[in-house]
Amino acid sequence: MSEQSPSSAAPAFTHTTVLLHETVDGAFTTPDGIYVDGTFGRGGHSRLLLSRLGEKGRLIGIDRDPEAVAAATSGPTRVDDPRFHICHSAFADMAAQLDALGVDQVDGILLDLGVSSPQIDNPERGFSFRFDGPLDMRMDTTRGESAADFIARAEVDQLAQVIRDYGEERFALPIAKALVARREGGRPVRTTAELSQVVAGAVKTREPGKDPSTRTFQALRIFVNAELEELQQGLKAALSKLKPGGRLAVISFHSLEDRIVKNFIAEHSKEVFDRRAPFAEPKPQPLRAIARIKPSEAEVAANPRSRSSILRVAERTDAPLPPPVPEDTGKRKKGGRR
What we know:
By secondary structure, the protein is of the alpha/beta class.
């Protein structure tokens, strides 16, 4: 994503859906099916999917951002279609939301991960260093801890671990020390411009064409929203709700997300042989990998934010699901969620 220096002015909000047709094509199986858009955003994928549904078709949108839910239910962006319903929820809770609606299985699920253009382009949300605003970064502004509040309480080792693990930032420790030193000096970081300035002073070398605070912003956003944990839980929920022949289509935007999606599909689709019976057929698996798709050169030229996106598509087989794995009751890492 191309970024610029902080500014007090912001552009009008725009949203260009990434890999629009490829994702809907990947998730769509039948016009009379039930589908889930687990990351409704501003409804780009949902609107195209609705245009392909028959009268008996149904689409359930999910989004934890209250602004996205409002956009779906009111004003000029409202989705006025009796086949559509939206839930204010994280997609990690997809199974519970579907159960509450009396939906046992669905024909397709799509997830467009990360932060949406309207979230990035609104300075009040605090997701971007292009425009100065409060350092919030919460996707659901009705709950949880803001990035500023986390920075205000975290110790150096906690900050460094978050920035290193979620931002893959090699200068994580100097950045963490600079943030804590500023806080202890009576000037805690509360805005996007302040964070950007502190990071710029702590990063000794810069990647060409990339703002030095890019990785730190990514890390804090992922941590504040527990995005990787939500993705892991959401993929499990999706697998539990897909009917045989149903499709899962997931767009990721950075290596941490894509690695989780890739490994999840591989884990549930790779052939498993019984070593005690070497000539036996492999054990059937609940998923089958279908495709890995990158945006075209034309899409990247028209929408630079699509540059790093990867779409992975998998299909549910008729093999039984594996037994659930017990939850890890061990202690979390120091930088982990409270």
